[in-house]
Design brief:
Elements (H helix, E strand, L loop, with lengths): L1 E8 L4 H18 L2 E9 L4 H12 L4 E3 L10 H7 L1
Parallel strand pairs: 1-2, 1-3
Length: about 80
């Protein structure tokens, strides 16, 4: 399985990014997954997530690992867009 890690911070914050990444790598290890891709966004826009979604739909990425569900979006509209 090709797993991808996705992290996002509302503003550039290297420490928060490192914490999210570490949590994702820990989850991948616990689940026996190899995280072959990493994606990160800073800010309210999510251009890297926009690049990631077609990869998931095409089957290049089979599993998405996030530290918390709110990293994908904080509103129903955001979550509808990613589904």
């Amino acid at each position: 399985m090709n797993a991808a890690i996705y992290t996002r911070t509302a503003v550039p914050n290297p420490a928060a990014h490192r914490r999210q990444r570490a949590r994702c790598l820990q989850l991948a290890d616990q689940l026996g997954l190899d995280a072959t891709h990493e994606y990160h966004d800073d800010g309210k826009s999510r251009p890297t997530l926009d690049l990631l979604l077609p990869e998931i739909l095409a089957g290049s990425v089979s599993t998405l690992i996030i530290a918390s569900i709110d990293r994908l979006g904080r509103s129903i509209t955001d979550n509808e867009r990613t589904s």
